[in-house]
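Two quick folds needed for the group meeting slides. Do the first one here.
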Amino acid sequence: MSDKETDLIKLPFWDKLSPYEKNTVSTAASVRHFEAGEIMGCGGGCLGLVYIKSGSLRVYMLSEEGREITLYRLHSGDTCVMSASCVISQLTFETQMTAEEDTDILVINTGVFSQLTERNIYVRCFMYELISERFSSVMWTLQEILFKGFDRRLAAFFVREYDRTGSAEIRMTHEQIAQKVNSAREVVARMVKRFSEDGLVEARRGVIRLTDIAALREM
C-alpha cells in the first residue's frame, strides 16, 4: 500500500465510498508540501478537500487594512473543507491559510470533491458536520476577542501551548504570539512584562518560559 493510500483510508468517509469512488479519489488525490511561513490560498485558491498529513496550518481572515484574525488551527490528522469554498455555496467569505511549520497535506481536488458531495450522502453529511465544527471554533474565537480580557486570553494561549507541546518553553517572538492571539505586538509585550513581574513567566529574546503554570491555568 502506498503512502497516499495509507492516508486516504484515514478519511472519515472512506469506508462509505463505492469502489468506483475510491478509485476516482485515489487517482485525483495529490500530496503537497508547504514550508513554514508559506501562504496558500484557501477561499481564493480553492484547493479542494485538505487532509493534514503532518505539520500545522493557521486559518485566518485578512482585512483590507492588512489586519489578520486567526480563526482556528489545523494539526496532523485534521481535515479542512473551508479550502473547498468554491464547492460550498453557503461559504460567502474568504479565508487564508499559512503553514506554521513544514507541512504536508493530501488534497482531493475540487472537481472530484464536488462530485462526491453531490452523489454520496455520507460525504455530504461529513462536509456539513465539519463546517458546523469549524463555525463553532470561529464563534469561540469571536467570544474570546469580544468578551475576555487580554490577560486571560494570553494566559489561556500559554496553557494551550503547554498542554499541546508538553514544554514550558514557548519559542515565539511577541509578533508571532500577537498573530496567534489576535492582538498587537506592543500589547503582547506589555502583558508579558506584567506576567514576568508577577512571577508567571520568564522572558528572554524569542523564548518565554512558563514558571507558574498552575496560576496561568487558574486565570
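Then this one, please, same format:
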Amino acid sequence: MARSRKRKKRASVAPIYVFGIVWAVMALTLPIYRLNVILITLAVSAACAAAAIPVMARLNPRRSTVGSSKEDPEPEPAKSYGAEIDAIIAEGHTAQKEMGRLYASIQDESIRKKINRIMEISDKIVQDAIHDPGDVPQITRFLSYYLLTTIKLLNAYDRMSSQGVRGENISGSMERIEEMLDAAISAYEKQLDSLFANQALDIETDIQVLNNMIAREGLGEKDFK
C-alpha cells in the first residue's frame, strides 16, 4: 500500500564532509599539536563548511538544508452539503467578497456601517440553508434578487462618490441609495426572522409534547404541592 505521508526533507551532509576534508588536509600540513593551530584549523574548517551550504542549495534546490523538515499541509477540501446548498454557499461567498470590496472603497462611515450590517445578516441567511434545507427556495430568491440588486446599487454609489462632483443627479441618486439601504436592512432582518418560522413551530410542538408528558407522569410542580 502506498504511503500517504510524504517523506521529511533531510539536510545535506556535504558541509560535514567539507569540514572533515579541510581538517584532514590542514592536520597533515600544519603542527596540529599546537593550540593556536588547532583553533585556526577549526575556524577554517567551519568557514569552509558554512560556505558549502548555499553552494549545495543551488546545486540541489529540492533538498532543504536549513528549513523546516515538515512540508506545508495540504488544504482540506470544503465540506459538501449537496449541489443545491453548495451553490447557495458559493454565491453567498461571492457576494460577501464584493461587499467587502465596496466597504473598503466607499469612504462614508455611515454607508460602511450599513454595508457591514448587510454582510452580517446576509451571511446568516446563507448559513441557514445548511441548518434548514427547507428554506432553500426563500434563500435562493433572496440571493438572486434582493442581495444582487443591493450590490448593484452599492456599486453605483461607489462610482458616483468617486467622481468628486456633487451635482443634482449624483447627489439625488446617492441620497436615494442611502435611504434604500435602511429599508434593505429592515427587510433583511425580517427575512432572517421568517426563516425561523418552521423552527419556531417545531419548538412550540416539542414544548407542548413535553408539558403533556410531565403532566401525565405527575412530575409537574402542582403535583408536588
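Slide caption for protein two: Helices lie at 14-29, 35-59, 83-105, 109-131, 136-161, 168-194, 197-216.
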